[in-house]
Amino acid sequence: MAARVSLCFLVEEQYRRDGMPRSVIHQLRAWGHRVDVVRPGGELLDLNTLVERGHHDAWVLKTVSGGPGLGLLEAAAAAGITTVNNARSIRGVRDKARAAALAAAHGLPVPTTWAAARPRDLARIPAGRFPLVVKPADGSSGRDVRVVERPEHLAAIDRADQGLLIAQPFVPNSGVDLKVYCVGGRIYGTERTSPLHTGGRKAPDRPVRLDPEITDIAARVGEVFGLDLYGLDIVRGPDGPIVVDVNDFPSFGQVPQAVPTVARAIVDLARGGSAWPLVPESRLRDSRFPEPLAVGTL
């Protein structure tokens, strides 16, 4: 029997009752692994004890952008502890301005991106590039993402903070986003009604087969950003697929047997393995995993 691993999950209040990662934690414990759960911002933490070398094989982060969890994960990484994903990689994708610049520099298909601290500064973008998708550079879960149709509409953006904004041209599309999930060396696809879609009824999410162009983009995203466990949002525009967002530790919705698949990937990464090379799920024979357990309370 393979050696058990010891893991520390950083889970913020927003995700305590969320199926991902709660079900994954229960699955790992059912397999005999030790899992400690830390609530960043919700308890007093003894950092010296928490990051003691040898106490955990890996730390796993499931927190919102801007919360205290990533700082704690970086503290663990600085102490030599393995993190899932790499702490620097997580920081890279959560700063959407940095992520857009890095993706463009490596030739990934991403929209033109502008950045400004004040909404009115975005009015300098040529009117012909509107409508724009405007969002916080440190946003997550679709928070404060809006479509701005005309330059004069920028004045309606009410900002309580002075963080950086990014703006990208709206990509004309069918109203359906392609969610691509990468876990355990496999690539999965799901179609989902875009949160920016305003016409018609919302269609249910459904798994889809991915063509080679999409799987190549997904693998390149992981390589460029140094991620093993991640997702990306793709819009199919008039000029081809465009990557509009990259997420560390997404929900993995519609991934077959998502809970044991994600749990097994975390164990492999904690043991020092890698998810590379990534291949689409359709190219592999089905793997047989134990069924996920019923969810309890953390």
Keywords:
298 residues, 7 helices, Dna Ligase, domain 1, alpha/beta
Structure description:
There is one protein chain. The chain has helices spanning 19-30, 47-50, 69-78, 87-94, 96-105, 212-225, 258-270, and strands at residues 6-11, 34-38, 58-62, 82-84, 114-116, 132-136, 146-148, 165-169, 176-183, 186-193, 206-208, 230-237, 240-248, 279-280. The protein is of the alpha/beta class. It has a domain at 112-169: Dna Ligase, domain 1 (2-Layer Sandwich), CATH 3.30.1490.20. The strands form three sheets. Strands 9, 10, 11, 12, 13 and 14 form a six-stranded mixed sheet that branches. Helix 1 packs across helix 7 and helix 3 (69-78) packs antiparallel against helix 4. The protein is globular, with a radius of gyration of 20 Å. 38% of the residues are buried.
